[in-house]
Amino acid sequence: MTDIMIVEDEAAIRQVIAMHLQLVGHGVREAEDAANARSLIAEKKPDLALLDIMLPGEDGFSLGEYLIGRDVPVLFLTAKTAVTDRVRGLSMGAQDYILKPFEPAELLARVENILRRTRKEDTTLICGGLMIDFAARRVMRSGEEIPLTTLEFDLLAMLARRRNVAMSREELLAGVWGYDYAGETRTVDVHVQRLRGKIGAQHIETVYKYGYRFNGHPEGNT
């Protein structure tokens, strides 16, 4: 399980971020300031740190340098809109930044991208009786492989990586088929129906007038 540390002095923001990360299967540790964060790092180095810049006492830039120096990927959370602040964070080696307020779906997408780049993302998901091997692009149930087309696997992988999070048809169309795909969102519906027929309809829930959600909590990851 991926270990993500959230360093944010506002408890409400911290709790919302933690909830969404845990919903998709990540392990979370929380810190309200740099001192607390350093204690957590001493216990175990996280796979990723979500770091607020405006912290009480030692600021996020200083803590960020400490984390990056220990090979911990950093994503800055900031309400600052000045380009110089964003440039400073990226120049010191941060993987990414996101401006507050942000949508949880965007944060999860950025986290996913960072974990993929830093090779810390789980390569296998076991959920609801399915075993999804993202690296080998295979899906197994009861020891037998379920044959999927390239598009079907890409669609399943996108939903499964953000399990329990509703994804719009437009997001799925852009992520699987590409932004320049000339088809309509009905294409997503057709492929979801085919996918349900192969893996079981219970795994993919329709979100009324919006899109789809992959249901379930991971039974074990590697």
Give a description of the structure.
The chain is of the alpha/beta class. It has 2 domains: 3-117, Rossmann fold; 124-221, Arc Repressor Mutant, subunit A. It has helices spanning 11-23, 34-43, 60-69, 83-91, 104-117, 150-161, 169-177, 186-199, and strands spanning 3-7, 27-31, 48-52, 74-78, 96-99, 124-127, 130-133, 138-141, 144-145, 167-168, 204-207, 211-214, 220-221. The chain has a 5-stranded parallel β-sheet with strand order 2-1-3-4-5, sandwiched between helices. Strand 1, helix 1 and strand 2 form a beta-alpha-beta unit. Helix 6 (150-161) crosses helix 7 and helix 6 packs across helix 8. The chain is elongated. The mean pLDDT is 89.
What percent of residues adopt helix (DSSP H or I)? 40-55%
The appropriate CATH architecture of the largest domain is: 3-Layer(aba) Sandwich
Apparent shape: elongated
CATH superfamily of the largest domain, by name, is Response regulator
Number of strands: 13
Q: Describe the strand arrangement of the main beta sheet, using strand numbers.
A: 2-1-3-4-5
Unreliable segments of 5+ consecutive residues:
none
Q: Radius of gyration from the CA trace?
A: 19 Å
What is the succession of H and E elements? EHEHEHEHEHEEEEHEHHEEE
* Class computed from helices, strands and strand pairing: alpha/beta
